Amino acid sequence: MAIATHRRIENRGGGHQEEFTVSGATVQPGMLTKINSSGALVVHDVVEGVTPIMVPLEDALQGAIASTAFTTATQATVLFPNKGAVVNMLVTSGQTVSIGTKLVSAGNGKLITAENATSGVLVPGILFEATEGQVAALSADTLVACRVL
């Protein structure tokens, strides 16, 4: 199965956006993020941890695409997607994904499939982009269209 190369994180369905200063490890568009105790944007770092969906968007005003990461002390626009919205999120290499695959936080800002999880605490999203019955093992960290439930 060929998974599309995405230039945008927000796919469809909308939500509201806010800006935060990035802190710590590099934050990439499409990652699962959170706000730390200082009010800065960091990658979600709890494996299988529950969190609101906060996804950094590409910095289109600077000509950046979805693969261009933010670094510490830069401003990032974050999307809080509406329920039912489709957002391109970063799924960890080696995961086997198909329609309806449930996803959880990998603890590094990326997502893994629930089959590779231990607690079964799910991020409220499922894999959306695929043709019925197709399955693919991702050979690299890949942006995958996920519906927010």
Describe the fold and architecture.
- It is globular and about 35 Å long.
- A four-stranded antiparallel beta sheet has the order 1-7-13-11, with no helix packed on it. A three-stranded antiparallel beta sheet has the order 2-6-5, with no helix packed on it. A two-stranded antiparallel sheet has the order 3-4.
- The protein has strands at residues 10-12, 15-21, 33-35, 41-43, 55-56, 75-81, 86-91, 96-97, 103-105, 111-113, 125-127, 136-137, 142-148.
- 0% of the residues lie in helices and 34% in strands.
- With 149 residues, it is an all-beta fold.
- The chain has one domain.
- It is built from no helices and 13 strands.
- The mean pLDDT is 83.
- β3 (33-35) and β4 (41-43) form a beta hairpin.
Essential attributes:
149 residues; mainly beta; four-stranded antiparallel beta sheet; 13 strands; 0% helix; 34% strand; globular
